[in-house]
Structure formats: C-alpha cells, structure tokens
Amino acid sequence: MRVWKRRGAHRVRKSLDAKLKWRRPTLMSGAAFCGSSSLLSDAGCGGGSAKRSSMMPCRHDVLQLDCSPFAELAGFDRPDARKRLAATTKSGRMLQKSGSAELEKGAKVESQTFPGPLVLPHDDLNYDPDGPAQSFKSWLNEKHRNRVTPGRKTLYVAAVPEVDESVGFMRGWTRVRVDGAGGAPSNGLGKRKMVDGEENERKRAIAEDEEMQSPDVHDVVGYLQAFYHGMHVKQFPQRLRWVPWKEKGRAATKMNDIPRYVALQYGDRATRIRARPSPDGVFTAQLNLNDILDAAIAMLPADAYSILLLVDHDIYESEEDDFCCGRAYGGSRIAVVQSARYTPELDERDGIEYAHAWPMSHCKAYADALCGVEDVVPRPATVSQIRLSKTGPMRAAITATSALSSPPTTVEDLRALWLSRIARTASHELGHCLGMGHCVYYACNMQSTGGLREDARQPPYLCPVCEAKVGWAVACELQRGGEEDRKNWVMERGKALGEWCKKWHGVGMWEGLRAWLEARDKLVGIKALKW
Ligand SMILES: [Zn+2]
Ligand SMILES: [Zn+2]
User: Fold this and answer.
1) Is the pLDDT of residue 293 over 70?
2) Mind listing the GO biological process terms from this record (predicted)?
3) Maximum separation of any 2 CA atoms in the chain, in Å
4) Which of 98, 205, 496, 529 could lock onto 229 through a cystine, CB 3.0 to 4.6 A?
C-alpha cells in the first residue's frame, strides 16, 4: 500500500467550510488571517488516457457510478446508502425503515442520477479522505450559518474591475504568456498572446481586437439566478477599478517591473492589493486574494446576503501557492473567483481532456486509465455496472454532450466553455456563503477540488444533500414556506436551470445538465428516487 502525500501546488477552490471561519478585515491587508486547511495538488495524472483518446474516440460504454477503485487505496470511506439517505433529512434519521437489500437496490438506481465521488489519484479526497461530512441536519444547526432574511437576501456579483490608464500594464497580466515557464499554449487559439514590441500598431490593434474577452458578468449573474432560483442575484452597482497604490505620496516600489502593490478602488475608497510574479510564469503577475477579500468586506452592501467579486487576473492565497481559482469565507459572506486560469487556452498545458470533462468523466475506461497510473489493476465491468450504464440521467447527459462537436474551436464556443467553468465555480463559492461545506456524499457541485483537471470532471448539479440545504434556505427561511414548498422549489429550480441550458445549448456542461435534468424529472415522476 502506498502512502499518499500532499504535493501542494495548484490550488483550485478551497474554503473554510466546516467551521465557517470569518475573514477579518485588516487595516493594512498584511499577513492576515489565512485559512490554509490543506494544500492541494494536481500533479501529473491523466497522460495515458489523453493519448489513447486522441487515437480512438472513447465511447464511454460503461459508467463509473460509484467511487473509482482507487478510492480504497486513498483511504476514502464513502458514507453508505443508509447514511446518505439520513443526511438529507432534518432529523438526521431515515424517514422509513428500509431493509439492507432494499437500500442496496435503491442505491444502485440512485447512482444512475447521483454517482459517487470519483476519488481519482490527486483528487482532493485523495489527499483529504477524512474530510468531514456535513449533513442537512448539521448544516441546519450550524451556529455560525448566516440565515437569508428578507432584509438581507441579495447575492451581489461584481464585474471584473476596470483597469485605470495609470496601471495600463495590468492589462497584460491577464494574458497567457507565450514565453511562460509552463510553455506555450497550443490549442490553435493564439489570440491572447502578447504582441512583440517591434510589431507595428496596426498589428497590435488587430491582436487586441481579436483577443478573447473573459466572460460577461451578466451571463454569470444569469446562471446564478437559475442556480439559486428564488434568491435575488444582482450585479453589484458600483464599478470597481484597478488603480496605483500610493504610499506617502510615492508610487509603490517595484519588484521585477511588477509593483509590490496595486489598489482596488470602489467609490471613494481603495484597498491595497499585493502583487507578485506568477510562480509558474503562465501569467506575468498575480494578485493576493486575501487582500481582494478585504476589499469585498469593505464594500458589502447592507442588503447583501453575500458578494462575489470576479477578477480576470490570476490570484493566489498564500506564499507557497502557485495560484488559487476561487475562495469563499462563508462566515463573512464574501467570495472571489478568477477567470484567468479557466481559459480554454491553457487546457492543453494543464492536461484537461475535453472528451472526459463532466459528464464523460464518469466513463469507466477513463477512470480505470487514471487509476492505472497508480498501479490499480482495473476490474472488469460487472453485469450490474453494464446494466446501470445503459439508462438514467447520467447516460442521458453523456449521450447529449458527446453528440456535440468536440472540442469547440470557434472563439464564441470557447468563450462559452470558459463561461461555464467560471459560472460553476461561482455557484460553488456562493454555496459556501450559504454555509455549505464540501460534499463527500456524491459527485456534486459542492465537492472539494484538487486541481483544474478535477474541476473539469465535477458536475454542475447539487446532490440530494446539498440541494436540501439550498432548498431550505430559499423556500423555508427566505420565503417562509413548508416542506411542500421546498419540494416545489426543487421542481421550479430544475425548470429555471433547464431554461438556462436550452439558451446555451451547444455548451458541453449545460447540454449535459439539460439532459440530466430532463431524465431526472421523469424519474421523480415515477418515484424511482424515493426509496
Ligand atoms: Zn469549496
Ligand atoms: Zn453534495
């Protein structure tokens, strides 16, 4: 048995969920409170299967609906069917007494809709297999959870800050560097590459013009309105702006041509933000997310339930981080999500296999190939695995998504793919603001993430435990409804999300989610999920 150690590097999403820690505002945004619960890494997995799929497209015939065979080696012990069912109830107990055989059968049917977490090598549960499970009951009774109230019910999303002319160089920081230590991105896009100084103005203008803009805040807001159906999701009315940081009348000192500090301005106030070169050289510089979160605390409006800041710069949390994609402090109701690292331009460099992004990530051949890297011998598919793979919401999602031409090639399609990634992480981080911890029950939008590859494998839906929490917050606490209203909310939310997905048809994640929702609806209709 091998011992799995952290090889900390690329942080993706992390929050201090279980304890709902607060982000304390600091005067000087210095080495403040920084909740490093665990280091995450996403070191070298997936090479084998990427090679194979480029030779012959995978048909995803058999699905991995339970944890991968690697989970046991990682020491992950998934809550069993009885615990999962009990975790969705207010009392923490199962509503009906069911025999083991009945539960076993029910769990198999359930896995066609809600598969288990994959737990592949280098996934977050690989490094943190004993992470606490937060049931609906423990969420409900969490002392420090902020309730949504009629006076404090708005989820604000702030658009990417504008760049003031005086810090015009910061525009260059959002572009992938061709000469970065990570190597040139080579997916054929090449439109965000920096233009050499010797190139003439016209060429520069064309490059600027063709540059793929990071996704629009209105689209992120639109998705969150569907995802948090019933909550008030609005764009933050103030425009944020990057400006220089000046101390005692002097501009901040520079380090490798990168100022040590810049400032984030909102209204007539500004917060100092640390800057540093991106350690892996993929971007020229990155910004400290704790400082950005200090600004978020300062701008939280009175009627806000929470605020999410979008930035298109690379961000980091602690000195030893390479980067961090998103972060929430649930207790303080603040979150930040970056778009820079999610650009499809970096997919090849980061080893993200489009053909096995969610929902295709639940393909057994793919999971086996990744486990094989760690000497786990794949087991042949069982009769039951083959049977369960043929129908159900996960199969419907895979059929719908794999029918799309892949990977996307037009700027428009790539930008939509980019949006879907940011939107999903935004919904995850806001989940922390609602008091939700990381989910260990199922593959779920609230799962923790060990890196960009795992991020691409995770679903955009909420599992039954997490959906129960959001349903309670919206239908019962905010709208003061009862159990029946909570059930209706699940249906209404499904419809809202379905509408969103139809509008964005052609985007893999949302095409899959649409088919998944439709198939789930049918199952709910025949009560197959109520076991
Ligand atoms: Zn998280
Ligand atoms: Zn969940």
Assistant:
1) yes
2) proteolysis
3) 75
4) 496
Q: How far is the CA of 13 from the centre of ligand 1 (A)?
A: 5
What DSSP string runs through 183-212? ----SS---SPPPPTTS-HHHHHHHHHHS-
Residues with CB under 5 A from ligand 1 (ion): 13, 15
Cα of 429 to ligand 1 centre, how many Å?
6
What was the ipTM of the complex prediction?
0.96
CA angle 126, 1, 119 (to 5 degrees): 20
What token pair was written down for 101?
A: 């055989």
Q: Which ligand is nearest to the CA of 432?
A: 1
> Is the pLDDT score of 101 beyond 90?
no
Q: What is the pLDDT of residues 50-79, one digit of tens each?
A: 334 445 789 999 999 999 999 999 999 999
Q: Which ligand lies nearest the alpha carbon of 438?
A: 1
Contact 86, 94 (CB under 8 A): yes
How far is the centre of ligand 1, averaged over its atoms, from the C-alpha of 259 (Å)?
Answer: 30
- Counting ligands in written order, the one closest to the CA of 431 is 1
Q: Would the pLDDT of 194 be above 50?
A: no
Angle between helices 383-390 and 100-111 (to 10 degrees): 50
Tokens describing residue 302: 């009175």
Which ligand approaches the C-alpha of residue 458 most closely?
2
Torsion angle of the four alpha carbons 128, 134, 138, 142, in this order, in degrees rounded to the nearest 10: 70
Q: Which helix (H) or strand (E) holds 13?
A: strand 13-15
Amino acid 303: pLDDT:
95
- Centre of ligand 1 from the C-alpha of residue 129, in Å: 15
Question: In the 3-class helix/strand/coil scheme, how is 295-342 assigned residue by residue?
Answer: HHHHHCCCCEEEEEEEECCEEECCCCCCCCCEEEEHHHCEEEEECHHH
Q: How far, in Å, is the centroid of ligand 1 from the Cα of 268?
A: 32
- Mean pLDDT, range 486-508, rounded to an integer: 96
Q: Which ligand is nearest to the CA of 117?
A: 2
- Complete DSSP assignment for 57-97: -----SB--S--THHHHHT-----HHHHHHTTSSSSS-SS-
Question: Tell me: the pLDDT tens digits for 341-385?
Answer: 999 999 999 999 999 999 999 999 999 999 998 889 999 999 999
- For residues 73-95, one letter each, b for 16 or more C-beta atoms within 10 angstroms of the residue's C-beta and e for the rest, the string is bbebebbebeebbbbbeeeeebe
Query: Which of the ligands is closest to the CA of residue 445?
Result: 2
> How distant, in Å, are the alpha carbons of 334, 405, 407, 483 from that of 487?
29, 36, 37, 6
Please list, residue by residue across 114-131, b when 16 or more beta carbons sit within 10 angstroms of its beta carbon and e when fewer do: bbbbbbbbbbbbbbbbeb
